[in-house]
Design goal:
This protein is α+β, with helices and mostly antiparallel strands and 383 residues long. Helices cover 64% and strands 9% of the residues. It has a 4-stranded antiparallel beta sheet. It has a two-stranded antiparallel ribbon with strand order 2-3. Its main location: cytoplasm.
Length: 383
């Protein structure tokens, strides 16, 4: 349509400034610089960079980016040429190639339109839907690199719930154990007073030993509590700091991921729109005036992809660190806690048992221990 006019349409830059520049890139062993080109004759007056591929001379140099216009190759202007012709010009140059360009000074906020925001919301909703549900609602699902980090977020929720329950149970156990220790201490004080006031030497000695046994149990209990308290502190740090920090990072990553997917979908829609209009023989106005709107979205997509890659790397590092903390601050302390709790019965069994055996030496005469003392001894030492 616009090609039939007797005059050329002026470029509609949408208020986006451009800055001319030149960059020299050294080709790799495959004789490429790592860019794809779009636009050009016969429908678009501008030739521009569609994508800069990773780990290529262009991406490593970092000067040119998606959306920048190519104005020349090795001093030769490319105005009016097709993208295939420009690609061959670059390919025919061996070694180093000089690219003349107009840098697109785009603000990413300009590309973040209401359409992008709505697409982002849609991706967030569709993320947790099954394929059948999404198809029934007529929603397309964009699956990015079979993302397992979403499942990792669910696992963190379950892990946090497990350790939260374990901490509450352990706190109740330790509180009860502390109260039991204080009870043993009270028993020790009572038996000590009885032993001091007991006129019979044998019975007095037995009461004093029994008082010492109860006090030893109380001291052991306090020592156990002092040993276990740092373990609870480590578990608390893991539960209330490490896990929430990782969950927050994953949520930020998901937000960046959905934004990147939104720009990818927007680029595809604009491509389809352009192909359809060309097939009908009616090129779009935006294409005939430099395709600046499309180039702006290309730039936004590239920057969103860079943020996505950085966030994914950050999340993977934090998950690895969290797994290490899980081993150091959760598994090891939990094992230690189990072992300490298992061993806490040893003094309470062995000390009263020795007293029981000693009590038998006093016989059944006038110097025998009172019946209630023997009963208490056998209760604490059933063996």
């Amino acid at each position: 349509m616009f090609t039939d006019l007797d005059y050329e349409l002026e470029e509609d830059k949408l208020g986006i400034p451009t800055v001319p520049g030149t960059v020299t890139l050294k080709k790799d062993h495959q004789n490429v610089i790592g860019i794809s080109i779009g636009g050009g004759a016969q429908h678009c007056p501008c030739l521009y960079i569609v994508q800069v591929f990773d780990n290529t001379p262009a991406s490593q140099d970092g000067t040119i980016a998606a959306g920048d216009e190519i104005t020349g190759v090795n001093g030769r202007p490319v105005k009016g040429k097709t993208k295939v012709e420009v690609a061959k010009m670059i390919q025919n140059v061996k070694g180093e190639v000089t690219i003349h360009y107009n840098k697109l000074q785009a603000d990413p906020k300009q590309g973040k339109s209401l359409d992008i925001v709505l697409k982002k919301v849609k991706h967030r909703l569709v993320e947790n839907m099954s394929s059948g549900t999404a198809d029934a609602l007529g929603l397309s699902r964009a699956i990015l690199c079979n993302d397992g980090l979403v499942k990792k977020l669910e696992e963190l929720e379950k892990t946090a719930e497990f350790y939260r329950g374990m901490m509450e149970h352990t706190k109740r156990l330790l509180r009860t154990f502390f109260e039991l220790s204080q009870t043993h201490r009270a028993f020790g004080d009572v038996f000590s007073v009885i032993g001091v006031r007991e006129p019979q030497p044998a019975a007095s000695e037995a009461f004093v030993k029994f008082a010492d046994a109860h006090r030893s149990i109380e001291k052991f209990g306090i020592g156990l509590l002092k040993t276990i308290k740092p373990m609870l502190s480590d578990l608390n740090t893991y539960l209330n700091k490490a896990i929430p920090d990782t969950k927050l990072t994953i949520r930020k990553y998901l937000d960046v991921k959905f934004e990147y997917l939104s720009y990818c979908l927007k680029v595809k829609e604009m491509d389809d729109e352009e192909y359809s209009s060309i097939a009908l023989g009616e090129p779009l106005y935006r294409v005939s005036t430099g395709n600046y709107e499309y180039r702006l979205i290309l730039r936004c997509r590239q920057e969103a992809r860079s943020r996505f890659a950085r966030m994914r790397k950050d999340v993977l590092e934090k998950i690895e660190l969290l797994d290490q903390k899980h081993g150091n601050k959760c598994v090891a302390p939990t094992t230690k806690l189990r072992n300490h709790t298992r061993r806490n019965g040893t003094p309470t069994k062995s000390l009263p048992r020795r007293l029981t055996l000693g009590a038998g030496n006093y016989g059944t005469g006038p110097a025998a221990l009172p019946k209630g003392v023997l009963i208490d001894l056998f209760i604490l030492s059933p063996e």
